[in-house]
Amino acid sequence: MWGERVLLVLWKKWFSSPGRPAVSPIAGDKPESVVERIQQGDDRLRDELIRSYHPFILKTTSRFCRRYVDPARDDAYSIALAAFDEAINRFLSDAGRSFLGFAETVIQRRLIDYARQEKKHSEVVPYSAFDTESADGDSAGNRLEVAQAMDAYARERTAEDRKAEIAALSEELSGYGITFGDLVDHSPRHRDSRIALLKVGRRLGEDERLCGMLRQKKQLPIKELCEGGDITRKTAERHRKYLVAVGLIAYGTYPFLREYIGLDHDGEEATS
């Protein structure tokens, strides 16, 4: 886990003021061109690029966490910093998307991984919980009681997190005139259709250009989504509301819903 020491090292490396030039060597340059120069070996620009996009990294992290993020204290911010650095190394200029769009996707993926890992740790019952004995020595009964309490807490926390995600998605969908009742009526019935539509919806959410068209115009870019040949225009129009919902889940910060609808494992919904 990223701790305070790692965060402070990153903070000092990327945001300390001593020695910083009065004029940024990347001022006026597009981030794509700066990243290309870094990848070609001009690594002195890396720290400057990260410093320059500190507000972007902070905004992306805060939006994911849905709260104010303190760069000097939050582990989530150190994860985002490392993800931005990872994006610099992995970005492909000929892939047809902007660097910032790619970096945002990488940051969100790493924060989702971090959130899942934190949740996993929080649900583990510590061994020390099983070492406590009651006054009459009934340690077995006490261990069972502790385990049951921890299990109930984990289920309650998961249910609350899911409820919060559903409420947030419901509010976002309302901007498109879509309700959860609509999704029931417009969801694909067959497994093959569901897998194909999930694939297209995921591409919609992860493609900055296509998702930008959806979010700005509040309209599904059907023509562009059908160009890959995964679905026909008729299918896309029939399941328009479903595709919008999947695209928003893939784009946004909905780890539970993402897992539930099967975005990360070939369209098989979770059963829990």
UniProtKB/TrEMBL annotation:
UniProt keyword annotations, A-Z: Cytoplasm, DNA-binding, Sigma factor, Stress response, Transcription, Transcription regulation
Activity control: Negatively regulated by the anti-sigma-I factor RsgI.
Organism: Cohnella soli
DNA-binding region in chain numbering: 222-241
Reported function: Sigma factors are initiation factors that promote the attachment of RNA polymerase to specific initiation sites and are then released.
Subunit structure: Interacts with RsgI.
Gene3D superfamilies per the UniProt record, alphabetical: 1.10.1740.10
Residue ranges occupied by any RNA polymerase sigma-70 region domain in the UniProt entry: 49-120
Protein name, entry field: RNA polymerase sigma factor SigI
Any matching Pfam family: Sigma70_r2
Family: Belongs to the sigma-70 factor family. SigI subfamily.
Cellular location(s): Cytoplasm
Span(s) of short sequence motif Polymerase core binding: 75-88
Main location: cytoplasm
Annotated transmembrane regions: none
